[in-house]
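Thread: quick sanity check before group meeting

JM: Hey all, I'm pulling together slides for Thursday and realized we never actually wrote out the predicted structure for the chain we discussed last week. Dropping the sequence here so it's in one place. If anyone has concerns about the input, flag it before I start.
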Amino acid sequence: MSVIAWIGLGNMGGPMSANMVAAGHEVRGFDVNPDAVATAVAAGVTAAAGIREAVAGADVVFTMLPKGEHARAVYFGDDGVLATADTGTLLVDSSTIDIETAQTLHDAAAAAGFRFVDAPVSGGMSGATAGTLTFMIGGDADAVSDATTFIEPMAANIIPTGGATTGQAAKICNNLMLFINLAATAEGAVLAERLGLDKQVFWDIASVSSGDSWALRTWYPIKDVVATAASNRDFAPTFTATLASKDIGLAIAAARATETPLEIGEHVAELFQRLIDEGEGGKDCSMIVKLVDGSLHA
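JM (edit): ok, ran it. Output follows.
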Protein backbone atom coordinates (compact mmCIF):
# COMPACT_ATOMS: atom_id res chain seq x y z
CA MET A 1 0.00 0.00 0.00
CA SER A 2 1.27 3.47 -0.90
CA VAL A 3 0.41 6.90 0.44
CA ILE A 4 -1.20 9.02 -2.28
CA ALA A 5 -1.71 12.77 -2.08
CA TRP A 6 -4.51 13.94 -4.37
CA ILE A 7 -5.02 17.64 -5.14
CA GLY A 8 -8.21 18.36 -7.06
CA LEU A 9 -11.24 16.20 -6.23
CA GLY A 10 -13.72 17.39 -8.86
CA ASN A 11 -15.65 15.49 -11.50
CA MET A 12 -12.53 13.63 -12.62
CA GLY A 13 -10.26 13.70 -9.58
CA GLY A 14 -12.96 12.52 -7.21
CA PRO A 15 -13.71 9.17 -8.88
CA MET A 16 -10.06 8.67 -9.83
CA SER A 17 -8.98 9.04 -6.21
CA ALA A 18 -11.78 6.66 -5.18
CA ASN A 19 -10.32 4.02 -7.49
CA MET A 20 -6.96 4.45 -5.77
CA VAL A 21 -8.66 3.84 -2.41
CA ALA A 22 -10.35 0.74 -3.84
CA ALA A 23 -6.92 -0.51 -4.93
CA GLY A 24 -5.78 -0.44 -1.30
CA HIS A 25 -3.85 2.82 -1.17
CA GLU A 26 -4.09 5.42 1.56
CA VAL A 27 -5.30 8.57 -0.20
CA ARG A 28 -5.16 12.03 1.35
CA GLY A 29 -7.13 14.54 -0.67
CA PHE A 30 -7.49 18.30 -0.83
CA ASP A 31 -9.81 20.56 -2.80
CA VAL A 32 -10.99 24.13 -2.31
CA ASN A 33 -14.59 22.92 -2.82
CA PRO A 34 -15.96 21.43 0.44
CA ASP A 35 -18.63 19.46 -1.43
CA ALA A 36 -15.98 17.76 -3.57
CA VAL A 37 -14.04 16.87 -0.44
CA ALA A 38 -17.16 15.45 1.22
CA THR A 39 -17.89 13.25 -1.81
CA ALA A 40 -14.33 11.97 -1.85
CA VAL A 41 -14.39 11.26 1.89
CA ALA A 42 -17.53 9.19 1.39
CA ALA A 43 -15.49 7.08 -1.06
CA GLY A 44 -12.73 6.51 1.49
CA VAL A 45 -10.37 9.43 0.86
CA THR A 46 -8.95 11.10 3.98
CA ALA A 47 -9.52 14.86 3.91
CA ALA A 48 -6.44 17.06 4.25
CA ALA A 49 -6.62 20.61 5.54
CA GLY A 50 -4.29 21.85 2.80
CA ILE A 51 -1.57 20.93 0.35
CA ARG A 52 1.11 20.69 3.03
CA GLU A 53 -0.89 18.15 5.02
CA ALA A 54 -1.84 16.16 1.91
CA VAL A 55 1.70 15.74 0.60
CA ALA A 56 3.48 15.05 3.90
CA GLY A 57 5.11 11.62 3.61
CA ALA A 58 3.34 10.81 0.33
CA ASP A 59 4.87 8.42 -2.18
CA VAL A 60 3.21 10.20 -5.08
CA VAL A 61 1.23 13.41 -5.59
CA PHE A 62 -1.50 13.49 -8.23
CA THR A 63 -2.94 16.81 -9.34
CA MET A 64 -6.14 17.07 -11.39
CA LEU A 65 -6.96 20.75 -11.90
CA PRO A 66 -9.09 22.79 -14.31
CA LYS A 67 -6.54 25.15 -15.89
CA GLY A 68 -2.88 26.02 -16.10
CA GLU A 69 -3.33 28.89 -13.66
CA HIS A 70 -4.64 26.46 -11.05
CA ALA A 71 -1.72 24.09 -11.63
CA ARG A 72 0.75 26.95 -11.15
CA ALA A 73 -1.00 27.97 -7.93
CA VAL A 74 -0.88 24.42 -6.56
CA TYR A 75 2.75 23.74 -7.42
CA PHE A 76 4.30 27.14 -6.72
CA GLY A 77 4.21 29.39 -3.66
CA ASP A 78 5.11 29.03 -0.02
CA ASP A 79 2.54 26.30 0.61
CA GLY A 80 2.65 24.71 -2.84
CA VAL A 81 3.67 21.18 -3.72
CA LEU A 82 7.25 22.04 -4.64
CA ALA A 83 7.79 23.86 -1.35
CA THR A 84 6.18 21.31 0.95
CA ALA A 85 6.64 17.81 -0.52
CA ASP A 86 9.73 15.68 -0.02
CA THR A 87 11.89 15.54 -3.15
CA GLY A 88 11.60 11.75 -3.14
CA THR A 89 7.90 12.10 -3.91
CA LEU A 90 6.87 11.45 -7.50
CA LEU A 91 4.73 14.24 -8.99
CA VAL A 92 2.02 13.41 -11.55
CA ASP A 93 -0.06 16.17 -13.11
CA SER A 94 -3.16 14.79 -14.83
CA SER A 95 -4.71 18.18 -15.56
CA THR A 96 -5.32 19.25 -19.15
CA ILE A 97 -3.33 22.48 -19.43
CA ASP A 98 -1.37 24.60 -21.89
CA ILE A 99 2.01 23.46 -23.16
CA GLU A 100 3.81 26.50 -21.72
CA THR A 101 2.58 25.80 -18.19
CA ALA A 102 3.38 22.10 -18.52
CA GLN A 103 6.95 22.95 -19.52
CA THR A 104 7.21 25.42 -16.64
CA LEU A 105 6.12 22.73 -14.18
CA HIS A 106 8.64 20.25 -15.59
CA ASP A 107 11.45 22.79 -15.38
CA ALA A 108 10.60 23.95 -11.86
CA ALA A 109 10.19 20.40 -10.57
CA ALA A 110 13.54 19.34 -12.03
CA ALA A 111 15.26 22.42 -10.59
CA ALA A 112 13.86 21.54 -7.15
CA GLY A 113 15.02 17.91 -7.41
CA PHE A 114 11.66 16.23 -8.14
CA ARG A 115 10.59 13.62 -10.67
CA PHE A 116 7.61 15.00 -12.58
CA VAL A 117 5.39 13.75 -15.41
CA ASP A 118 2.55 15.32 -17.33
CA ALA A 119 -0.12 12.62 -17.53
CA PRO A 120 -3.46 13.93 -18.86
CA VAL A 121 -6.30 11.50 -19.43
CA SER A 122 -9.01 10.70 -21.93
CA GLY A 123 -12.27 8.90 -21.17
CA GLY A 124 -14.37 11.47 -19.33
CA MET A 125 -16.30 11.11 -16.11
CA SER A 126 -17.57 7.65 -17.02
CA GLY A 127 -14.02 6.43 -17.59
CA ALA A 128 -12.85 8.04 -14.37
CA THR A 129 -15.55 6.20 -12.45
CA ALA A 130 -15.01 2.87 -14.19
CA GLY A 131 -11.21 3.01 -13.98
CA THR A 132 -10.90 2.76 -17.76
CA LEU A 133 -9.14 6.03 -18.59
CA THR A 134 -6.39 6.40 -21.16
CA PHE A 135 -3.30 8.09 -19.69
CA MET A 136 -0.80 9.89 -21.93
CA ILE A 137 2.46 10.30 -20.00
CA GLY A 138 5.31 12.64 -20.89
CA GLY A 139 8.59 12.98 -19.04
CA ASP A 140 11.80 11.22 -18.13
CA ALA A 141 11.57 7.50 -18.91
CA ASP A 142 12.27 6.39 -15.35
CA ALA A 143 9.66 8.75 -13.92
CA VAL A 144 7.14 7.60 -16.52
CA SER A 145 7.81 3.98 -15.57
CA ASP A 146 7.33 4.72 -11.87
CA ALA A 147 4.13 6.69 -12.55
CA THR A 148 2.72 3.79 -14.60
CA THR A 149 2.75 1.55 -11.54
CA PHE A 150 0.62 3.98 -9.58
CA ILE A 151 -1.73 4.77 -12.47
CA GLU A 152 -2.79 1.19 -13.23
CA PRO A 153 -5.92 1.10 -10.96
CA MET A 154 -7.38 4.04 -12.88
CA ALA A 155 -6.57 3.05 -16.44
CA ALA A 156 -7.42 0.79 -19.33
CA ASN A 157 -4.56 2.25 -21.39
CA ILE A 158 -1.27 3.80 -20.28
CA ILE A 159 0.76 5.20 -23.16
CA PRO A 160 4.19 6.82 -22.78
CA THR A 161 4.34 9.71 -25.24
CA GLY A 162 7.97 10.83 -25.01
CA GLY A 163 9.66 13.72 -23.24
CA ALA A 164 8.33 16.61 -21.21
CA THR A 165 4.95 18.06 -22.32
CA THR A 166 4.26 15.34 -24.91
CA GLY A 167 1.45 13.97 -22.77
CA GLN A 168 -0.24 17.37 -22.91
CA ALA A 169 0.44 17.62 -26.63
CA ALA A 170 -1.25 14.26 -27.22
CA LYS A 171 -4.26 15.25 -25.12
CA ILE A 172 -4.68 18.61 -26.82
CA CYS A 173 -4.57 17.10 -30.32
CA ASN A 174 -6.87 14.22 -29.33
CA ASN A 175 -9.47 16.58 -27.89
CA LEU A 176 -9.30 18.80 -30.95
CA MET A 177 -10.25 15.77 -33.05
CA LEU A 178 -12.96 14.74 -30.58
CA PHE A 179 -14.74 18.09 -30.70
CA ILE A 180 -14.54 18.31 -34.48
CA ASN A 181 -16.01 14.80 -34.63
CA LEU A 182 -18.75 15.84 -32.20
CA ALA A 183 -19.70 18.83 -34.33
CA ALA A 184 -19.77 16.65 -37.47
CA THR A 185 -21.91 14.08 -35.64
CA ALA A 186 -24.39 16.78 -34.61
CA GLU A 187 -24.71 18.08 -38.16
CA GLY A 188 -25.05 14.60 -39.68
CA ALA A 189 -27.59 13.50 -37.09
CA VAL A 190 -29.85 16.52 -37.60
CA LEU A 191 -29.62 16.35 -41.38
CA ALA A 192 -30.43 12.61 -41.36
CA GLU A 193 -33.61 13.19 -39.36
CA ARG A 194 -34.71 16.04 -41.64
CA LEU A 195 -34.22 13.79 -44.64
CA GLY A 196 -36.64 11.30 -43.12
CA LEU A 197 -34.23 8.73 -41.68
CA ASP A 198 -35.11 7.02 -38.44
CA LYS A 199 -32.57 8.18 -35.85
CA GLN A 200 -31.73 4.66 -34.68
CA VAL A 201 -31.43 3.33 -38.23
CA PHE A 202 -29.05 6.14 -39.14
CA TRP A 203 -26.94 5.57 -36.03
CA ASP A 204 -26.81 1.84 -36.79
CA ILE A 205 -25.46 2.66 -40.23
CA ALA A 206 -22.99 5.38 -39.21
CA SER A 207 -21.59 3.37 -36.29
CA VAL A 208 -20.38 0.62 -38.65
CA SER A 209 -19.49 2.88 -41.55
CA SER A 210 -17.10 5.68 -42.39
CA GLY A 211 -19.02 8.19 -40.27
CA ASP A 212 -18.13 6.31 -37.08
CA SER A 213 -16.33 8.03 -34.19
CA TRP A 214 -16.06 7.87 -30.42
CA ALA A 215 -18.34 10.91 -30.25
CA LEU A 216 -21.00 9.13 -32.28
CA ARG A 217 -20.81 5.94 -30.22
CA THR A 218 -20.66 7.61 -26.80
CA TRP A 219 -22.03 11.18 -26.97
CA TYR A 220 -24.65 10.90 -29.74
CA PRO A 221 -26.55 14.20 -29.41
CA ILE A 222 -30.01 12.86 -30.34
CA LYS A 223 -32.10 11.53 -27.46
CA ASP A 224 -32.83 7.83 -26.94
CA VAL A 225 -30.19 6.39 -29.24
CA VAL A 226 -27.04 5.92 -27.11
CA ALA A 227 -27.46 5.17 -23.42
CA THR A 228 -24.35 7.07 -22.32
CA ALA A 229 -25.28 10.29 -24.13
CA ALA A 230 -26.12 13.47 -22.22
CA SER A 231 -28.90 14.11 -24.74
CA ASN A 232 -30.98 11.56 -22.79
CA ARG A 233 -30.72 13.69 -19.64
CA ASP A 234 -31.45 17.21 -20.89
CA PHE A 235 -27.71 17.63 -21.53
CA ALA A 236 -26.69 17.28 -17.90
CA PRO A 237 -22.92 17.44 -18.25
CA THR A 238 -20.57 14.58 -18.78
CA PHE A 239 -18.16 17.20 -20.20
CA THR A 240 -19.30 20.80 -20.05
CA ALA A 241 -19.29 23.25 -22.92
CA THR A 242 -17.06 25.51 -20.82
CA LEU A 243 -14.45 22.76 -20.43
CA ALA A 244 -14.71 21.90 -24.12
CA SER A 245 -14.15 25.56 -24.96
CA LYS A 246 -11.11 25.61 -22.70
CA ASP A 247 -9.63 22.47 -24.21
CA ILE A 248 -10.12 23.41 -27.85
CA GLY A 249 -8.72 26.81 -26.95
CA LEU A 250 -5.52 25.07 -25.84
CA ALA A 251 -5.26 23.43 -29.26
CA ILE A 252 -5.82 26.75 -31.02
CA ALA A 253 -3.16 28.44 -28.88
CA ALA A 254 -0.70 25.63 -29.62
CA ALA A 255 -1.56 25.84 -33.32
CA ARG A 256 -0.89 29.56 -33.43
CA ALA A 257 2.41 29.07 -31.62
CA THR A 258 3.44 26.53 -34.27
CA GLU A 259 1.88 28.40 -37.22
CA THR A 260 -0.56 25.55 -37.85
CA PRO A 261 -3.90 26.56 -39.42
CA LEU A 262 -6.94 25.07 -37.65
CA GLU A 263 -9.83 26.40 -39.70
CA ILE A 264 -12.25 23.67 -38.65
CA GLY A 265 -11.10 23.78 -35.03
CA GLU A 266 -11.57 27.55 -34.94
CA HIS A 267 -15.16 27.15 -36.15
CA VAL A 268 -15.96 24.49 -33.54
CA ALA A 269 -14.50 26.75 -30.87
CA GLU A 270 -16.97 29.42 -31.99
CA LEU A 271 -19.85 26.95 -31.52
CA PHE A 272 -18.86 26.28 -27.91
CA GLN A 273 -18.48 30.01 -27.30
CA ARG A 274 -22.00 30.55 -28.63
CA LEU A 275 -23.32 28.05 -26.07
CA ILE A 276 -21.45 29.87 -23.31
CA ASP A 277 -22.77 33.24 -24.51
CA GLU A 278 -26.29 31.79 -24.35
CA GLY A 279 -25.76 30.86 -20.69
CA GLU A 280 -25.35 27.13 -21.39
CA GLY A 281 -21.68 26.73 -20.53
CA GLY A 282 -22.52 24.38 -17.67
CA LYS A 283 -24.44 22.02 -19.95
CA ASP A 284 -22.88 19.14 -21.84
CA CYS A 285 -20.77 20.07 -24.84
CA SER A 286 -22.93 17.84 -27.07
CA MET A 287 -25.60 20.52 -26.72
CA ILE A 288 -24.04 22.10 -29.81
CA VAL A 289 -26.63 20.01 -31.64
CA LYS A 290 -29.14 22.68 -30.64
CA LEU A 291 -27.15 25.19 -32.68
CA VAL A 292 -27.68 22.90 -35.66
CA ASP A 293 -31.39 22.19 -35.19
CA GLY A 294 -32.22 25.74 -34.12
CA SER A 295 -33.93 24.67 -30.90
CA LEU A 296 -31.75 26.52 -28.39
CA HIS A 297 -34.19 28.27 -26.03
CA ALA A 298 -37.01 27.49 -28.43
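AS: nice. The two ends are 54 Å apart (CA to CA). The chain has a mean pLDDT of 96.
JM: adding both to the slides.
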